[in-house]
Write a structure and sequence with these properties.
The protein has about 300 residues and is of the alpha/beta class. The protein has helices at about 10-25, 55-65, 130-135, 150-160, 180-185, 235-240, 275-295; strands spanning about 5-10, 30, 70-75, 80-85, 90-95, 100, 105, 110-115, 130, 145, 165-170, 190, 195-200, 205-210, 215-220, 220-225, 225-230, 240-245, 250, 265. β10, α4 (about 150-160) and β11 (about 165-170) form a beta-alpha-beta unit. The strands form six sheets. A five-stranded parallel beta sheet has the order 3-2-1-7-20, covered by helices on one side. A five-stranded parallel beta sheet has the order 9-16-10-11-12. The chain binds flavin-adenine dinucleotide (FAD).
């Protein structure tokens, strides 16, 4: 099937990218496997006007609003291949169908690789979290931990006392010193060097962490920065340029969200060094408007 713009990924960034295009009366096919990054959280927080809404409810509201435009089509499948042609791009789905478009918007998100600690995955998105602005308020006032997965954790540990009494768990691998150590001390952050081996909790709520020396430290919430990877086979097939940032690798884009390949725009976590729903929505709008302009000016 031929269309004007294909969007791969139908969460915050992809859905937002579709809006200016369909309002500009352009044909859009949005392909989505419906596995957004925040699917482990019951509620999405910190997004203006929809604070506390369930991720699935946000998606279905966006889809129903987009579906009111006659040029919008959603396909709930996984894209498996992208081929560049003289006229644009052909996207193949896992059911063998193909879609052809002049412009492409990639909004496939990223993958979180979590530390391999017993009990951690089970509480991810509820009381083991990565972002204080997303879920920190809900865990306020209790005993909080920050598990170091890199030296970036020192900076997060300096912030977290705004939400509760904080312990930085260095796992015996990362040693704060100099000015950052002084800041941790100023903020009353306790530093625990013995490694966490297990996280204890009931259902969604953690209660404590177990250390290698047998001690248990009571905790209400644990912050963990996952290793964020961009691992979609679709990116490899296009061989897009990437960018290393202190927060991880992203796809390289210009201010208009165009990638190193003309006609391919990239939005959301895939191209944002700082990642949250609001920034994904914003970058989706930019990618959608840029793809529209590229159709008009034949860029
Ligand atoms: C546990 C957790 C909780 C979070 N809570 C919050 C919060 O409360 N507030 C906040 O602002 N931010 C939160 N975030 C961050 C937020 O989830 C992300 O910044 C946001 O989801 C990024 O949106 P996105 O559209 O770029 O990607 P995603 O939301 O990850 O969506 C990508 C979409 O692309 C689809 N896709 C991927 N590959 C393909 C393919 N080959 N074919 C078809 N579809 C494909 C996926 O299935 C998915 O639907 C949270 C993150 C995590 C990990």
């Amino acid at each position: 099937m031929k269309t004007e713009v294909i969007i791969i990924g139908g969460s915050f960034a992809g859905l937002s990218a579709a809006m200016p295009l369909v309002r500009g009366r352009r044909q859009v096919v949005l392909i989505d496997a419906n596995s957004p990054r925040n699917r482990f959280a019951k509620k999405s927080h910190g997004v203006f006007c929809i604070d506390g809404k369930a991720p699935a409810e946000i998606r279905s509201t966006a889809l129903s609003q987009l579906s009111a435009y006659p040029t919008f089509q959603v396909v709930e499948q996984t894209a498996t291949k992208i081929t560049q042609t003289p006229d644009g791009f052909v996207v193949t789905l896992n059911n063998g169908e193909t879609y052809e478009a002049k412009k492409l918007i990639l909004a496939m998100g990223v993958t979180d690789q979590l530390p391999d600690i017993v009990g951690l995955k089970e509480h991810w998105g509820t009381s083991v979290i990565h972002c204080p602005y997303c879920h920190g308020y809900e865990l306020r006032d209790g005993a909080l931990g920050v598990l170091a997965t890199s030296e970036m954790a020192f900076h997060q540990a300096v912030m977290i006392p705004d939400w509760g009494v904080t312990t930085l768990f260095t796992q015996g691998q990362f040693n704060p010193d100099g000015e950052i150590l002084a800041q941790l001390i100023r903020r009353d952050v306790a530093i625990e060097k013995t490694a966490i081996t297990q996280i204890l909790g009931d259902g969604e709520q953690i209660h404590a962490v177990c250390l290698t020396d047998g001690r248990q430290i009571p905790l209400n919430g644990l912050y963990v920065a996952p290793n964020v990877v961009i691992d979609s086979p679709l990116l490899q097939s296009l061989n897009l340029e990437t960018l290393a940032t202190p927060m991880g690798v992203t796809v390289k884009v210009n201010n208009f969200k165009e990638s190193s390949i003309k006609g391919v725009f990239v939005a959301g976590d895939l191209s944002n060094p700082m990642q949250n729903a609001t920034l994904a929505i914003s970058s989706g709008m930019m990618a959608g408007v840029s793809a529209h302009r590229a159709l008009i000016f034949n860029d």
